Amino acid sequence: TGGFITAYATAQVQKGKLVSIHSEDIYRLDDRVNYRPALPSQLRDYLKVNKFWIRDSNTSPDFEESMNTFASMYKSAGGAVAIDGIVGIDTEFVRAILAVVGDVHTTQYNETFSAAINPTYQISDVVYKLELYSEQLLKGQDNRKDLIGDLMNALVKKVLTSDKKTWPGLLQAVQQMAEQKHIVAYSYDKSSQVLLEKYNYAGRVQDYSGDYLNFNSNNYAGLKGDLYVTQKI
Fold first, then answer.
1. How far apart (Å, rounded) are the C-alpha atoms in residues 144 and 25?
2. pTM of whole model > 0.90?
3. Which residue, 30, 92, 156, 223, could crosslink 182 as a Cys pair with Cβ 3.0–4.6 Å?
């Protein structure tokens, strides 16, 4: 948590099967939001914004706290649907899945994405192309983030139709990404949430009786400059 929410999707699951998925640019959702909580100081003082956008609602290091803020704003938006929980993923999760299932081709943009390292920029092909489209090829267009939805739909289809031999690798990749917090989940079902927190997959900031160090690093700036920053703690 603590990052810009680029896009979102609502997925309907019945009896363990994905029935439908609808994705949308976060800016389009923001245009329909009617309720906005008080603006957090870090957004007001450092980004100098004057309105609490839902795309900036991921401000707390605690995933549940951030998603409760997101949900309170989402409920006020036109076209919002009832949800049972929220799953957050980042581009590293997408890269890890592509590394298992192979390249994915999208239909709307006729583009192929892979986990391979771009030789020029030394970042994964999928991250490079997402940034290329967002910051250059589709810059200034209202639908510049629609590519993410196109990619996610293609990736879900590739996963669901993949050979059974790939599933052990997929499960291992998901577990590794969950342990590294590249995928986190918050369930409204209490028993499911307890299970997520038990295995530390819920992105919670834990309470302890003694002292402890919780290091939380966050970049509120744009242009993804931190892709090329090496940090050592």
1. 8
2. no
3. 92
